[in-house]
Amino acid sequence: MVRAVFVFALLLSVLAAAPAARALDAREFGAELPHLVDWLGRIDGAVVIRLADGSHHVVGLDEQGITLSPRPEPLPPVGSSDPAAMPDEIVVTGENNIRAAWYRKPTERYGHAVLGDAIEAGGLALRLEGGYRENLDLTTEAVFEDRAPRIVDIDGDGVDEILAVKSYTRAGAALAVIETSDRGLRMAAESEPIGLPFRWLNPVGVGDFDGDGRREIAAVITPHIGGILRLFEWRDERLEPETEAPGFSNHAIGSPEQGLSTAADMDGDGIPDLLVPDAARRNLRVVTFSFGRFRQLAEVVNTDTIDLALLAQDLDGDGRREAILAPGGRLKVVVFKP
């Protein structure tokens, strides 16, 4: 009993000493452009937009507002040369034990078409350090309902894993962690599938979102029907749900764009926050789960829906990240300050 009281008192003292999440003021900057933005992303580490006329521009920020610098059209991405490549193949690269990853083995055995067509991936391929290649094929009971695998160190051990969306034909989507081993690739952990076919989820990111020293995976469950922002923790061979909050969406049904949300420390407390659109995909919510307490830090109100990628990056060199988005194709940079 004495030990239990001591632990409880210690927990209270830690929570009391923890800095409270502070609300953020949002200052918005726009830009008058000759055409709407139809793509937003990163090229060589810079934030780049493509306008409807096909021109590309690097986005910056100074005291006067948004700056745009024309840049050449990027070269076509390098493919995997895999004979079983996906028709819309995306090869992602890493710098640790996993040097490249891509989905493969197109299949139509799961006709959900949530990402724009009925073709999903039946397998995954990795190029490892040293040039070795490893494949992982799913059974006919599942597909990778995902555009690109994510190379990320989920458990913080210095070794990268793959985070993927795995959908079961009879039970819907689950998060899946694939790791390398001496015997090839293995499915290291999964979350419980949603429970119904044609029910999907979209990851947001990986980080220590509650400040407990362990990394979580953040994802929006069923982003098209009552989306729930949920944190998962890797425990043994399971991804267990920890905490959640309703009222979010990070995907437009039928769109190939999965990057409508991101994670970044926006309030400077050392704990990554989550930037996710609301359930209508109109307003941007900046939220935190710091020290186990969900709180909204800021909301950016938009007239149009968020359909293009959302980025968080320090554009002006002040050490704080700004949010870059283009609701309705209109570029917006948002500066957050306590």
Structure description:
The protein has 338 residues and is mainly β. The protein folds into two domains: 22-39 and 200-337, Methylamine Dehydrogenase, Chain H (7 Propeller), CATH 2.130.10.130; 77-195, Lipocalin (Beta Barrel). It has one helix and 25 strands. The strands form six sheets. Strands 10, 11, 12, 13 and 14 form a five-stranded antiparallel sheet that branches. The chain has a four-stranded antiparallel sheet with strand order 1-25-24-23, with no helix packed on it.
Q: How far is it from the N-terminal to the C-terminal residue, by CA?
A: 42 Å
Q: Helix count, per DSSP? A: 1
Radius of gyration: 21 Å
Helical residue percent band: under 10%
Taken in chain order, the helices and strands follow as: HEEEEEEEEEEEEEEEEEEEEEEEEE
CATH superfamily of the largest domain, please? Integrin alpha, N-terminal
When the domains are counted, the total is: 2
Mean pLDDT: 93
Shape: globular
**What percent strand?**
35-45%
Q: In the CATH scheme, what's the topology name of the largest domain? A: Methylamine Dehydrogenase, Chain H
CATH architecture of the largest domain: 7 Propeller
Contiguous runs where pLDDT drops below 50 for at least 5 residues: 1-18
In terms of structural class, how would the helical and strand content be classed? mainly beta
Counting DSSP E segments of at least 2 residues, the number of strands comes to 25
